[in-house]
Amino acid sequence: MSELHKFLFEGLPVRGMLVRLTDSWREVLARREEAGEFPAPVRALLGEMAAASSLMQANIKFNGALILQVFGDGPVKLAVAESRSDLGFRVTAKVVGEVPADARLEAMLNVHGQGRCAITLDPQDRLPGQQPYQGVVPLHGDQREPLQQLSQVLEHYMLQSEQLDTRLVLAANDEIAAGLLIQRLPVEGEGNLGGRRNEDDIGLSEAFNRIAHLASTLTRDELLTLDADTVLRRLFWEEPLQRFEPLAPRFSCTCSTERVKGMLTSLGEDEVQDILAEQGQVEVGCDFCGRQYRFDAVDVGELFTPGQNQPPGSAAVH
User: Fold this and answer.
1) What is the sign of the dihedral through the CA atoms of 137, 138, 142 and 147?
2) Tell me: the pLDDT tens digits for 158-187?
């Protein structure tokens, strides 16, 4: 069963989290396989993004969706992971070219240096005029060196956007997506995504530096094969940990018939009727969960019949 463990290092300004997505990650891949599976490097990237977005969502007190996106100029045009406050998550990608079997981040998304990573916080109950918070960083380091791992990009993001020292270890295969996050606690408040600035303390915490070094010794194979108790015991056996009740991330998609109807009504009756005439039905697939929504002539007629309870126009199902 998928699980997320939160813990504090007693007496030290350092917190940590460990996530293991097992059954939920396999469900994502099984659903995608029906529509045509992604290349292996893309599957691994999406698994790491699912783990990372779950860790970041659990790390903040936010009622809404945390959306992690990487996009650029390679054969992978876009990869997206979304995690909501109940730790329901979903992922997808848009692949537009051939992905080499050994491709890393640069070869997938940053071929000509145009790749970017964006993190968006979208409140569940937006106030009128309220805009989502978003931070964007390039897929290269301070010396413009291409970053080859998602963990490096997100560590760079946290340092640049939030002024918080962070160590992140991520790994994924077709059975499990997992991640370990270690972070220096801000001196005041909950300075995190969109929070207070703590630039004066960057790199100066001996406690964080020591624990981050221990975390860096965790190998990919260990992260993918060892249970949470074993990982924490092996890494931090000399450190007193305060652990909290585990949480349960799960695959969850927010698509629905009503949202698809809203998207179709926003297209307009003429365009929908053209699709119906050409194909005999209107079919809309969700890229996240693979569910297919089909509308025949009767359904379309009801959709545009005056007096029907029309759903509000909404964004297309992605």
Assistant:
1) positive
2) 988 777 899 999 999 999 999 999 999 876
Nearest-angstrom CA–CA distance, 153 and 171: 14
From the list 50, 87, 85, the residue with the least C-alpha distance to 69 is 50
> CB neighbours of 145 closer than 8 A, spacing ≥ 6?
none
SS3 letters across the chain: CCEEEEEEECCCCEEEEEEEECHHHHHHHHHHHHHCCCCHHHHHHHHHHHHHHHHHHHCCCCCEEEEEEEECCCCEEEEEEEEECCCEEEEEEEECCCCCCCCCHHHHHCCCCCCEEEEEEEECCCCCCCCCEEEEEECECCCCCECCCHHHHHHHHHHHHHCCCEEEEEEECCCCEEEEEEEECCCCCCCCCCCCCCHHHCCCCHHHHHHHHHHHCCCHHHHHHCCHHHHHHHHCCCCCEEECCCECCEECCCCCHHHHHHHHHHHCHHHHHHHHHHHCCEEEECCCCCCEEEECHHHHHHHCCCCCCCCCCCCCCC
Q: What is the dihedral of CA 141, 143, 144, 147, to 10 degrees?
A: -30
pLDDT tens profile 243-261: 999 999 999 988 888 888 8
* The two three-digit tokens of residue 89, written as one number: 């998550």
